[in-house]
Input
Amino acid sequence: MSHHKHSHHDVAFGIDIGGSGIKGAPVDLHKGEFAADRLRIPTPQPATPAAVAKTVAEIVDSFDLDKKVPIGVTFPAVMLHGVAQSAANVDKSWIGTDAQKLFSDATDRTVVAVNDADAAGFAEVAYGAAKDVDGVVLVVTLGTGIGSALIVDGQLVPNTELGHLEIDGHDAESRAAESVRDREGLDWEQWAQRLQRYFTVVENLFWPDLIVVGGGVSKHHKDFLPLLDIRTKIVPAELRNAAGIVGAAALAAQEDDDD
Output
């Protein structure tokens, strides 16, 4: 039995803020799919808080949304109660900015702002590879760095930074990220050895019931997941590029229900 409280909302709106593009779409919360075509606007340069907030408002205004529709935004930073504590691929002036208040003011609506890996991970639990899995789910995104999301019985434990575990004297993502495989020209077997070390440490610390692997490279999962010999069941993510928008929308709806 899944622990998700089904939202009393049918639709929520998700916005995924990245270094190159800001994308938004309404999400059907029963299916975990876009309810209309998404809109993408290039991320303003420099990606200052004021400029990004204006783009977010532009995306929201492009859709005919009821005032009661929950809105969730993903942001590439550690987000403590809506306040950015770091800034990856956006202007450094975000650090210390209350993004949640900024976006809420810009759109004249209540907006929930969450870490991008957390949103994508939550989407896998709500609708994807970890749907109906009880207990502890760890979603690891392999990309430029290593992102992580930890979800326990349907509740997100926000802002885990498990790509930055120090393993064998190295910041883990500096050895095992997908960008490193590319940069060092590692073949699948060589990279899998790095991943093996990483996932062994992580499973021994958290004892998850399931590990889900996301990021663009997850579409090549047949080339590297079978090479891993770990205790935990490990599967590829299912939502791909939609995960951020879908997860942001689902988290916003969950928060609205809790209030």
About this structure: The mean pLDDT is 95.
